[in-house]
Amino acid sequence: MTSAPLASRLSIPSGPLFFPVTAYDRDGAVDLGVYREHVRRGVEAGAAAVFACCGTGEFHALTPEEFQECVRAAVEETAGRVPVVAGAGYGTALAVRYARLAEEAGADGLLAMPPYLVVAGQEGLLRHYTELAAATSLDVIVYQRDNAVFTPDTAVSLARAEGIIGLKDGLGDLDLMQRIVSAVRSEFPGDFLYFNGLPTAELTGLAYRGIGITLYSSAVFCFAPEIALAFHQALGSGDDATVNRLLDGFYRPLVELRAQGRGYAVSLVKAGVRLRGLDVGEVRPPLHEPSEDHVKQLAQLIERGHALLEEGK
Known about the structure:
Radius of gyration: 18 Å
Distance between the termini: 36 Å
Helix content: 40-55%
Number of helices: 12
Structural class: alpha/beta
Order of helices and strands: HEHEHEHEHEHEHEHEHHHH
Number of strands: 8
């Protein structure tokens, strides 16, 4: 088991960043046995890190007790081979509670979700994340999306804060991200990590690479690790021919399918995991299951993605 700091373990990943779904049984209860298998398969397939109980893992739907059980299970299954980063969110007090539960469970870091419900100003957002970071020994990655969008000045302050090591972008404003990267580089001498956190982040991988952001979350890795690994290797090596072949034949159609239903960034991924032979159950409400036709289209896309891999050999 390695004790290397989280930032150094994430800075040059050997594979995609894995955001496992949370498995439920037929009664809707967390199925830790299936969840462990899902995490274990992902690590063995080449994941560089496990982000447990985050957006794809339905953080919003888990009780604190379920959250801690899942984080602990992920830590035990990875056995130190890759870092485990756990979600934390809601208001500051609850975010701190989840951070401490994750710390007790053995996590290596936190992905700090946007605050619940309220639209706060920059001063309040900065206070929220710095107080969270100060309340735990775990390194924190701040997730920019929805009601938590930062100015370059706020991003510089986050980078300077003790315990905050990175920013994950789920907004997709490349102009803003370029200004954030430039401001932090100019005003903060240390290393700061950036992640492309858009749904199906591979679709924008080339664009983010252009501004120096090469880390990204991969939901596809949950159900098609072979495709996700091939894309990750091609993107990292500059093999744009393979990148574009997979974008055109697999990722773009997948994103268009995902756009057919609200919440499909989670429920379609769980359907994909089930298609690959692991029964992780359905999503919890308020999310809903994809239609039968959309699941059939997903199965065809997965088959098409694997055919594209064969074409490249």
